[in-house]
């Protein structure tokens, strides 16, 4: 009987993903991949998502200081089998070593966009108006309590 599919990852998937993220970060930090694009770039692994069968690991990476981030991600995908072999030593407890897929992490860009929106004059004006209302409400409550 097939299991019902859920949208949220299981506890095991989360635990394994975190172990894979640590092992992958250590491998990239040691600089074992011989590729000019990757050697000259610091690559941050922000998240790893595992497939339900734990055979595919999608790593979300942020190439820091790289001009062409897509080229760095493409180079990582090109060297995915090499990375898989290097990470396998740290993940000996796994029955199957996952296949690695690298994707560009856009969460930092989204954070910056939201931060810019929050700092915009329109939002600041609305927040100031809300602050004025709450101050007026507090002053009114203080007068009522006296």
Give the percentage of residues in beta strands.
15-25%
Rounded to an integer in angstroms, the radius of gyration calculated over CA atoms is: 23 Å
CATH class of the largest domain: Alpha Beta
**What is the mean pLDDT?**
84
Shape type: elongated
Helix content: 40-55%
Number of domains: 2
Which architecture of the largest domain would the CATH scheme give at its second level? 2-Layer Sandwich
Query: So how many helices?
Result: 6
Tags for this model:
146 residues; alpha+beta; GMP Synthetase, Chain A, domain 3; 2 domains; 3-stranded mixed sheet; 6 helices; 3 strands; 54% helix; elongated; RbfA; KH_dom-like_a/b; RbfA_dom_sf
Your description of this structure?
The chain has 146 residues and is α+β, with helices and mostly antiparallel strands. It has 2 domains: 1-105, GMP Synthetase, Chain A, domain 3; 106-146. Helix content is 54%, strand content 16%. The protein contains 6 helices and 3 strands, in the order H-H-E-E-H-H-E-H-H. Strands 1-2-3 form a 3-stranded mixed sheet. The N and C termini lie far apart (69 Å).
List the helices and strands and how they pair.
Layout: H1 11-30, H2 36-39, E1 42-50, E2 56-64, H3 69-78, H4 80-87, E3 99-104, H5 107-118, H6 121-145
Parallel strand pairs: 2-3
Antiparallel strand pairs: 1-2
